[in-house]
Fold this sequence. Notes:
The protein is α/β, with parallel strands linked by helices. The chain has helices at residues 26-39, 53-62, 83-97, 114-127, 140-146, 170-176, 192-195, 198-207, 211-222, 233-239, 249-256, 269-275, and strands at residues 4-6, 12-14, 18-19, 43-45, 71-76, 102-107, 130-136, 156-160, 180-184, 225-226. It has an eight-stranded parallel sheet. A two-stranded antiparallel ribbon has the order 1-2. Bound molecules: NADP nicotinamide-adenine-dinucleotide phosphate.
Amino acid sequence: MVTSVALSNGLRMPQLGLGVYLVTDIAVCESSVLAALASGYRLIDTATAYRNERAVGRGIRSSGVPREDIFLTTKLWPADFGYDKARAAIAASLDRLDCGHIDLLLQHQPVGDVKGAWRAMEEAVDEGTVRAIGVSNFTVADLEALRPHARIQPAVNQVELHPHWQQPELLPYLAAHDIVAEAWYPLGHGAKKLLSEPAIVAASGAHRKTPVQVILRWHVQRGFVAIPKSTNPAHIAANIDIFDFELTAAEMAAIDALGKDRPMFRMPRWLMSAVMPLARPRPLP
Ligand SMILES: NC(=O)c1ccc[n+]([C@@H]2O[C@H](COP(=O)([O-])OP(=O)(O)OC[C@H]3O[C@@H](n4cnc5c(N)ncnc54)[C@H](OP(=O)(O)O)[C@@H]3O)[C@@H](O)[C@H]2O)c1
């Protein structure tokens, strides 16, 4: 049984989901969503920028799983920030997904007219088309800048987070402000260096689980939401098979102690601000 966390507005969010970043073969995207839902996943994470919202929607609709049991996340891209553009972009995402409401809508990056877009997102919550709103890749300074302008505070911040990058400045801030930490690159994008860490390999042997399963279990026990990406049905099934064991306090501490590296993904803010508001993703059929 997949555990869940309570968002600040009371909505419950599963702690494990499927991410579909870079899955631009739409047939593969649709079949991965179907495989995940058949394996028991109830959280799917897409984005306007992934271009595959339509395929995700088709997978959900054809799965036979009741819509109310599924937690669907998508994200607005900075080219659509600003009040008017964000209003239109939310309507376009709802149309492409074609699944009724969006459970969680995130601002994908902290650049451009964040405040105007946030107002449009708050209105979508008022109107009932979106159930919760949050951000992605926001630093403490970004969150502090949004705070006084937000009638509804962000419920989630989706950031790079894994045993090799544990966000030492951000996580205490999120905990203090009742913002759920959601992990992208939960498996370090599949990096061998992470999977072969002795602390992870030792726990893997002790519990007869794979290193990937140990890492995902660590995320769950830390209280994070993790959205590993896979298009391999065997990996998709294995990644959710983590709710029948528990890492000991010593095993958790050993993995916690790994978090001293820098993030794997780095882009200077000036480049993000220059490029992201201009790049408009073209949705796939
Ligand atoms: N908000 C943001 O800016 C942002 C940025 C990046 C990612 N994300 C989100 O986070 C999700 C996950 O990130 P990610 O896909 O980059 O990295 P990831 O989930 O950490 O790693 C994905 C890699 O791990 C492999 N993998 C998955 N399960 C495995 C298993 N059981 N055994 C062995 N290998 C396995 C996958 O290959 P196979 O497909 O072959 O299994 C893939 O190569 C994305 O899909 C997206 O939803 C958000």
